[in-house]
């Protein structure tokens, strides 16, 4: 069959320019910057063949990449057809990519711990388990992402990891050399030990292994440029809280409690670890603060009242710095359902009592400027505790 020549044949530059608009779905950077464009061949009839390198063989997002490339190139004037041929990077190419993602640094370092980091890191802590710490974390993350911020979540609740399910992010992360690409859901990048354990098997790890896992989550995961990173800590004052303080001295603490006095006392103990670790406490969130009566809408104080205020006052006394109550979140069945269904209530029902309360707290956190002013310089000697 004779090849038809047309008057206007697209140039390689025009095709490359179109490819520069295609982001890798996991790394969120143009494929042209990532060395993923293997070849471009243009026939006189305007048909374009593009060779694309995948970072790993069996890449789960191969179809997404193919369709993004096809769509982008098809829009170039003069293009009559697009075919995409996939190949896989060599070990050498992967090493180069991993190094370039790390900004050319061979050493793994935690980007958020660098004195110049502009990412705000919040550790969400609680005294007792089951007070809604993970639910609050994922909802704040989704609400902050909905405000347009770049948000990441580390599920550091290594024993009771529930964040991926609550965010509907249950995919397995792709690995490029020793870099891990975090799955993202509702615009929130998320990483959890649950993504690396087969099935629902329990994780029985000792302190040093937990420290290592956390370090990997912070240094080996490709987070990109984040405005906010939230860490869901295990309940209580454990090894992980100390590890976080050592790894990211700039991290600030958000304490979640219920209104119950007994829960408040434990939450206050968990929060006061900040005194030893020299971290700042951003504030206290009171979860399960009453429930609107389904018949008359009057608030029923299921877990009593005053826990959030008690913790905030206690922590203000112990730390010597003003610790505010950032807000109260009522008991709301939609919040529990959202967690079970993997769609945070702040998105599925933003005007519900819990959704609205969480959005209000997220706005307070979102208003805090990205930047270095008022932040610790990370100079606390890590062997002090
Ligand atoms: N305000 C709320 N209204 C209704 N249900 C809630 C609320 N907050 C949390 N829940 C539900 O309470 C249960 C416990 O919440 P969650 O798992 O977030 O607690 P946690 O403090 O992270 O627990 P742990 O630290 O033990 O993992 C979940 O089923 C969650 O959906």
TrEMBL record:
Binds and transfers iron-sulfur (Fe-S) clusters to target apoproteins. Can hydrolyze ATP. ATP binds at residues 127-134. Homodimer. InterPro entries: FSCA_dom_sf, MIP18-like, Mrp-like_CS, Mrp/NBP35_ATP-bd, NUBPL-like, P-loop_NTPase, YlxH/NBP35. Signal peptide: none annotated. It comes from Streptomyces cacaoi. Pfam families: FeS_assembly_P, ParA. This is Iron-sulfur cluster carrier protein. In the C-terminal section; belongs to the Mrp/NBP35 ATP-binding proteins family. PANTHER family: IRON-SULFUR PROTEIN NUBPL. One of its GO terms (biological process) is iron-sulfur cluster assembly. Residues 12-84 form the MIP18 family-like domain. SUPFAM superfamilies: Fe-S cluster assembly (FSCA) domain-like, P-loop containing nucleoside triphosphate hydrolases. GO terms for molecular function: 4 iron, 4 sulfur cluster binding; ATP binding; ATP hydrolysis activity; ATP-dependent FeS chaperone activity; metal ion binding. Keywords: ATP-binding, Hydrolase, Iron, Iron-sulfur, Metal-binding, Nucleotide-binding.
